[in-house]
Amino acid sequence: QVQLVESGGGLVQPGGSLRLSCAGSPRIFRTYEMHWYRQAPGKQRELVAGITSGGVTNYADSVKGRFIIERDNPRTMMYLQMNNLESEDTAVYYCHALGDIEEFWGQGTQVTVSS
Fold first, then answer.
1. Could you tell me if 112 and 90 are in contact, meaning their C-beta atoms sit under 8 angstroms apart?
2. Is the pLDDT of residue 3 over 80?
3. Which of 5, 33, 70, 99 is deepest in the core (most CB within 10 A)?
């Protein structure tokens, strides 16, 4: 079955930037809608951004104008460019792939925004 692997998390100061990456299988990148979710301790997992197989994007209001979701289907990669980071962006970020009959999650990567 498909594996999703995130990378790029770390510690960054407020106002800084990070770029998260998610690697998956060719099957995912041909047909699946993909998303970035995040979850902070004690809070529910929330949708941050999504992108269809054709490249149509959507964003949570809290990150709109600061984050950019991209996918590179031939290279089987998805990205989340995070700019002007705030302390409230601190969370574990998860890559998610949604097909018609199945879905997959990555293991998560920690993003900490702190001075």
1. yes
2. no
3. 33
Q: CB-based contacts of 64: which residues, under 8 Å, 6+ apart?
A: none
**Token pair for 96:** 């998610």
Using the predicted structure, report yes or no on whether residue 97 has a pLDDT greater than 70.
yes
- Which segments of 2-113 are extended strands (E)? 5-7, 10-12, 18-23, 33-39, 46-51, 57-59, 67-72, 77-82, 91-98, 103-105, 109-113
| Residues 78-95: tens digit of each pLDDT | 999 999 999 999 999 999
Residue 100 has pLDDT above 70, yes or no: yes
pLDDT of residue 27: 86
Q: Tell me the HSE value of 18 on the side-chain side, using a 13 A CA sphere.
A: 21
- Are 69 and 60 within 8 A, CB to CB? no
Question: What is the DSSP pairing of strand 77-82 with strand 18-23?
Answer: antiparallel
Q: Which amino acid is at 39?
A: Q
Indicate the burial class of 112 (C-beta count within 10 angstroms; 0-12, 13-18, 19 or more).
middle
